[in-house]
Design brief:
InterPro entries: ATP-NAD_kinase_N, ATP-NAD_kinase_PpnK-typ_C, NAD/diacylglycerol_kinase_sf, NADK
Subcellular location: Cytoplasm
Order of helices and strands: EHEEHEEHEEEEEHEEEEEEH
Oligomer: single chain
Main location: cytoplasm
Helix content: 10-25%
Catalytic activity: NAD(+) + ATP = ADP + NADP(+) + H(+)
Structural class: alpha+beta
CATH topology of the largest domain: Tumour Suppressor Smad4
EC number: 2.7.1.23
CATH class of the largest domain: Mainly Beta
Length: about 260
């Protein structure tokens, strides 16, 4: 088994990385940052996002495993004191593979169209204040948005930024994207739907800002300032991210643990 390892960079994560590599070598696992079969992140969900973007060009060929140095996250199944068990399972067990949808984001300018993938969400904001942008669904005009911003999330990302905006939590087995409004302006003159919208895989949304407007485009933890954007097309990507599961931890158990607490 060839693996790649990415840690958060703090002292504890580095120590756990060294421990994992020692245990892995004893079990015959081989480090390979070029063509790994398994990508392991040690730190938290943010570290796994970084691991995804580092290996997004190989997303169809690798599986991911997360080790959390705090409490369990949505992407990290394993606690910091469970590394010996994890290495033993990797070496001896065949995992079952769980695949989650991704967002494909096509950014259209006069010069080019550049595609990106997001695991959690895409966000759009204006540098100078109120964002004004048209939203088309399946090439038909839907609304003219005015407000602080727009967030488009995956089902797994629906527990993050999207949830804080009042969006629904969607199970990752559903291939969909969700559009949520960030502080939209609604009065007698300007109107938006005022609620999140869920689009299935065969639908897409087209966000059309003023090309002269200075924008912040967020793709997961990455933020890009841009001008000259003609259109941003969001859809469910053909590729998915795959997680290697060596023990069950159902999605709704994760939600309950994160937001309600296991004691309830």
């Amino acid at each position: 088994m060839k693996y790649a390892l990415l840690d958060r960079g703090d002292r504890l994560s580095r120590e756990l990385s060294e421990q994992f590599q020692t245990l892995a070598a004893a079990r015959g696992l081989t480090p390979d940052d070029t063509a790994p079969e398994l990508v392991l992140s040690i730190g938290g969900d943010g570290t796994l996002l970084q691991a995804f973007h580092r290996f997004k060009d190989r997303v169809d060929d690798v599986s991911f495993v997360g080790v959390h140095t705090g409490h369990l996250g949505f992407y990290a199944d394993w606690q910091k004191d469970e590394l010996p068990t994890l290495v033993e399972f990797i070496a001896t067990k065949q995992p079952w593979k769980v695949s989650y949808p991704l967002i494909q984001i096509d950014i259209v300018t006069d010069a080019s169209t550049v595609s990106h993938l997001a695991l959690n969400e895409f966000s759009l904001k204006s540098v100078d204040g109120t964002l004004v942008a048209g939203i088309n669904i399946n090439d038909e005009p839907f609304e003219m948005f005015r407000g602080d911003g727009i967030v488009v999330s995956t089902p797994s990302g629906s527990t993050g930024y999207n949830k804080s905006l009042g969006g629904a939590i969607i199970h990752p087995s559903l291939e969909a994207i969700q559009i949520a409004e960030l502080a939209s302006i609604n009065n007698r003159v300007y109107r938006t739907l005022g609620s999140s919208i869920v689009l299935p895989k065969h639908h897409h949304c087209d966000i059309t800002p003023d090309p002269e407007e200075q924008l912040y485009l967020g793709i997961d933890h990455l933020v890009m300032p841009m001008t000259g954007v003609r259109s941003i097309i969001c859809r469910v990507a053909e590729s998915k991210i795959t997680f290697a599961r060596y023990r069950p931890f159902p999605f709704w158990n994760r939600v309950r643990s994160a937001f309600i607490g296991s004691e309830n």
